[in-house]
Amino acid sequence: MGEAGGDAPYWSQNKTALAASIGSGLEGLTSDRAKAQLSVTGPNSVEDAAQLNALRLLIRQFESPLVLILAFAAAISLVLQQWIDAGIILVIVIGSALLSFFQEYRASTAVEELKKRLALTCRVIRDGVEQEVTVSTVVPGDLILLSAGNLIPADGVVIEAADFLVSEASMTGESFPVEKRPGTVRSDAPITERTNCVFLGASVRSGTAKVLAVKTGHRTEFGAIAARLRARQPETDFARGARLFGYLLIRVMVVIVLFVLSVNLLLDRPVIESLLFAVALAVGLSPELLPAIISVTLSAGARAMSKRGVIVRRLDAIENLGSMNVLCTDKTGTLTEGTIVLSEVLDAANRPSDEVRRLAYMNAALETGIENPLDAAIVSAGSAAGLTTNGLTKIDEIPYDFIRR
Predict the structure, then answer these.
(1) What is the pLDDT of residue 2?
(2) 4 pLDDT band (50/70/90 cuts)?
(3) Residue pLDDT, tens place only, 42-98
(4) CATH entry, 138-226, from 2.60.20.10, 3.40.50.740, 2.70.150.10, 1.10.860.10
(5) What is each CA distance from 81 to 74, 261, 264, 273, 402, in whole angstroms?
(6) Could you tell me if 279 and 76 are in contact, meaning their C-beta atoms sit under 8 angstroms apart?
(7) What phi, psi does 195 have (nearest 5°)?
(8) CA-CA distance, 93 to 78, in Å (whole number)?
(9) For the structural domain made of 330-405, what CATH number should be given?
(10) Span 164-203, pLDDT tens digits
């Protein structure tokens, strides 16, 4: 966990010493220094540079045992010059494979286009002036300027902050925003207690801050999570069932073909005729149209889902939904309207109080920190009751957070 310039983690180091250890300063980098740093660290991205590979996607369509059985039967028919049988089998195999390929290729292309449209930018200080750069060019040592609504482009430490609250749900699972402020924390602090740090993948809910980037790309905390997620995707129940069924057919076919050939040879039947009969049995046992039926059916489902704004990248993922036993979802704003309405205002003695209503309205109406539905409900109810902030002047505020509450 140590950083360049010391064994202590960056969140426990003095900001001046930390900036110096990564070749920067509290005034940011120069453009030349940023280019040199980018050539060393690489792009600030947690994704591999490899683009969509159409050939690999096409080959994957022929991995199913069912398809391999038909391909083998077609090859035998070609060797034996049974052109019609071979042609029929090949048309079925190639047709179903191409159908699956085009569906998955279109979906993958759509996802790639969405990624290009979502190319993010951020504000940094380089050469002593504020500049807007693409997130992929951010390097350790950059001084990043953040404000409400920004996505955080790198892991770093907070240099300056004002009412700075960050949502780290993607990192910690904590739905409540946390306040970040300058300073140092102990070296063994877990990620949830690093109050002087921000992390790639989090978002700014309110306030402003100046952040020194320390880690980018794969070296970030989010990059470590992404690396674990890049492991081979688990096989779906549907794909597993189709694969096991294909293996079962292969075993049955091998046994029957060998038995038929052995019996015919023992009876002194012609070898070619015996082999043709065995191939006919193999083709008859294999459900030629099953791969095509699977592809057509799943493609129809993918098209129906695309009309509702859902992109299906792998066709067999559709059937996986049917194998779920428990589906967990955040209901607020999804299964419900997500709207809060103020019903009653009570004081500490549990009695209705107009004074508490007035004070709550003043606090909610003048707040400039995190926006939340509770304040919106209080302001709406207060406005309906005729309350206003006329004659009031806001001096300062201590931002509400979910520790002070």
Answers:
(1) 42
(2) very low
(3) 888 776 555 556 777 777 777 777 777 777 777 777 776 778 877 877 887 787 778
(4) 2.70.150.10
(5) 10, 19, 21, 13, 77
(6) yes
(7) -75, -10
(8) 15
(9) 3.40.1110.10
(10) 888 887 777 776 788 898 988 898 888 888 989 999 888 8
Give how far Cα 31 sits from Cα of 15, 37, 124, 125, Å: 21, 10, 11, 10
Q: What six digits make up the tokens of 101?
A: 């390929």
Q: How far is CA 99 from the centre of its chain?
A: 27
Tokens 């110096």, residue?
A: 20
Hey, what are 59's tokens?
Answer: 């080959």
Which residues are annotated as catalytic?
Answer: 330
- Residue 208's closest CA among 174, 271, 141, 163? 163
3-state percent breakdown (helix, strand, coil) of the chain, nearest 5: 50, 15, 40
Q: Looking at this protein, which amino acid is placed at residue 139?
A: V
Hey, what are 384's tokens? Answer: 């309906």
With tokens 């780290």, the residue in question is: 168
User: Phi, psi (5° rounding) for residue 270?
Assistant: -60, 140
362, 368 contact by CB (below 8 A): no
pLDDT in tens, 236-256: 777 777 778 878 877 887 887
Tokens representing residue 13 in the block: 């180091």
**DSSP three-state, residue 72:** helix
Please report where in the chains the tokens 């859902």 appear, as a residue.
310
Q: Domain locations in the chain?
A: 54-115+234-304, 138-226, 330-405
Fold agreement between 138-226 and 330-405: no
Q: pLDDT above 70 covers what percent of the chain?
A: 80
Q: Kindly report the backbone phi and psi dihedral angles of residue 329, in degrees, each rounded to the nearest multiple of 5, phi listed first.
A: -145, 150
* Residue ranges of E strands in 13-168: 121-126, 129-134, 143-147, 155-167
Q: pLDDT at position 286, please?
A: 66
Task: Using the structure block, give the residue that is written with the tokens 């950083």.
Answer: 3
The H-or-E segment that residue 198 falls in is strand 197-198
Q: How many CA atoms lie within 13 A of 316 on its CB side?
A: 16
C-alpha span between 32 and 51 (Å, rounded): 29
Distance CA 81, CA 141 (A): 69
The radius of gyration of the chain from alpha carbons, rounded to an integer in Å, stands at 32
